[in-house]
Automatic annotation (TrEMBL):
Its EC number is 4.2.1.8. Catalyzes the dehydration of D-mannonate. GO terms for molecular function: ferrous iron binding; manganese ion binding; mannonate dehydratase activity. It comes from the Bacteria. Pathway: Carbohydrate metabolism; pentose and glucuronate interconversion. InterPro entries: Man_deHydtase, Xyl_isomerase-like_sf. Its cofactor is Mn(2+); Fe(2+). This is mannonate dehydratase. It catalyses: D-mannonate = 2-dehydro-3-deoxy-D-gluconate + H2O.
Length: 329
């Protein structure tokens, strides 16, 4: 279990700063459309990252958290005419990841993106993302996927998994799917977000069972689907952790819960992140612990300052748990 990051580097100095802050493991992407990444592209990028003392542990497949209209592979969940071609392309990409020595890939099965309501003021005037169902547009129209019945949604997900999971297993590349952020009531914008509940996540990981089929376990998103995140989240972590279905952790906290929450810094929310980290350790989790979102703060470099705070917080918890990587030479 070790500190990681997925924050995009703006230049080489950002990679140097990551290493200086104690990060050794990253999720990062070469430029361009992932469908177009060649083996040489991946090798060059891996070696470039490695030059800063960083290990490229994970990349993003061409299935992101954006609304389906902005996706590189929209036909997979819309069952469009290019569905098989896009799935085949992802299968070939998984094979190239294995050749390049990149052990994992994250992805989303997202149709409506990440709904949020207006930013809200948090600690010291920082501005935080929030979602209040009473403020959401309940009449927002469906996406290009149209009205999608729940079981048809599952069928399309299974069609994808049936093709890609055997390729991942034969190439020993872990596929980590992010749950739906946030939970929304069934039928919102024409879909039921089947990965927006704990039961849906359980059904998902048990489909096409494989040690290479699991989750990009976003603790903030999981909290968003619970009535009482502080009380409930530990059992959720334990269920997936004991089954070795957690391949990456987004270590984010919130205040609130299902249908009404605000994102926070890790120590400023309702979930006990120290207790959570102990459960990850108890279940044998051995991959990255990383921040995903941070509140927007003031100053000359608000993004990286806020993330640096999170890196230090995670490092302190890992050290207290006795799970911090040994010091660099």
């Amino acid at each position: 279990m070790h500190l990681g990051t997925q924050v995009p580097a703006r230049d080489d100095d950002d990679y140097r700063v990551m290493a200086q802050l104690g990060i050794r493991h990253v999720c990062a992407d070469p430029p361009g459309n992932p469908h177009d990444w060649t083996l040489d592209t991946l090798l060059h990028f891996r070696d470039r990252i490695g030059g800063f003392g960083l290990s490229l542990d994970m990349v993003q497949l061409p299935l992101s958290s954006r609304p389906i209209e902005q996706q590189h592979s929209p036909d997979i969940l819309s069952a469009g005419p290019d569905r098989d071609r896009q799935i085949d392309s992802i299968c070939r990409l998984i094979e190239r990841l294995a050749e390049a020595g990149i052990p994992a890939a994250k992805y989303n099965l997202n149709i409506i993106g990440i709904p949020r309501t207006p930013l809200e003021s948090s600690r010291g005037g920082a501005m935080s993302e929030a979602f209040r169902w009473e403020k959401a547009d309940h009449d927002a129209p469906p996406t290009l996927a149209g009205i999608l019945p729940e079981e048809e949604n599952w069928a399309r997900i299974d069609y994808f998994l049936e093709r890609v999971v055997p390729v991942a297993e034969s190439n020993r590349v872990r596929l980590a799917c992010h749950p739906h952020d946030p939970y929304t009531p069934p039928g919102y914008r024409g879909v039921t977000r089947v990965l927006g509940t704990v039961e849906g996540m359980k059904r998902f990981v048990l489909m096409r069972e494989s040690p290479y089929h699991g989750l990009n376990f976003c603790q903030g998103t999981v909290g968003e689907m619970l009535d009482d995140p502080r009380r409930e989240v530990g059992d959720v972590i334990r269920w997936f952790g004991e089954r070795k279905k957690i391949f990456n952790v987004h270590f984010r906290n919130i205040r609130g819960g299902k249908l009404s929450f605000m994102e926070t810094f890790p120590e400023d929310g309702d979930m006990d992140m120290w207790e959570s980290l102990k459960i990850y350790g108890e279940t044998g989790y051995e991959h990255m612990i990383m921040p995903d979102h941070v509140p927007t703060i003031s100053g000359r470099d608000p993004r990286d300052t806020a993330f640096a705070f999170c890196y230090g917080y995670i490092t302190g918890l890992l050290q207290a748990l006795g799970r911090l990587d040994s010091k660099a030479d």
